[in-house]
What does this fold into?
Amino acid sequence: MIVRQQILTAVSLAAMVSIEACHKAVPVASAAPAPAPTVAPPPTPAPTTTARTAVNVRPSEPLASPRSVTMTPQERATLAERLARLEDALFDYDKTTIRSDATTVLKDDVDVIRDILASYPSQKLVIEGHADERGSSEYNLALGDKRARAAEEFLATMGIPDAQPTVISFGKDHPICTDQTEACWQKNRHAHITAAR
It folds into this structure.
């Protein structure tokens, strides 16, 4: 117990000596006082007003109003009349190449298509590919797709944007004529352009 008291006394003395050493003033060489830092004056707050600043708008050019996506019955009738002027491009049996008579037809269609796109810029067109009844449904769907794409590529070379028309194949499912004659089959092998619904 005495040893314990002696240890506590020694620790207390050591603590006091260290505290005393910390409080001693250390002589410092005299130095010139540092100049006071310069502080920029605070910025003057902008005056607050509730009035809005007027924007000068030139009245020389009227703002274009966006065209309605929904057509009126009159516009739809006019579009249908313009689409009726388009002729179908015909194809040979089991072929997807554009024939010379189809080239003439599609060239004539280009002006009508441009007129439709200018009048109805939001209207999408559809190029339908068709086949006659001979062959399987799967084969004729593929054939109709190739015919529609051939027409689309031809129109693109004539300046119709290829992003505008959509291509769809009906194969042999929507025949124009149902007689089993070559003349009837020829009518069913075609590419037809219409408006998307």
Summary: Residues 20 and 135 are 111 Å apart (CA to CA). The helical segments are 2-23, 73-84, 100-119, 137-157, 182-188. The first strand starts at residue 89 and ends at 90. The chain has a mean pLDDT of 77.
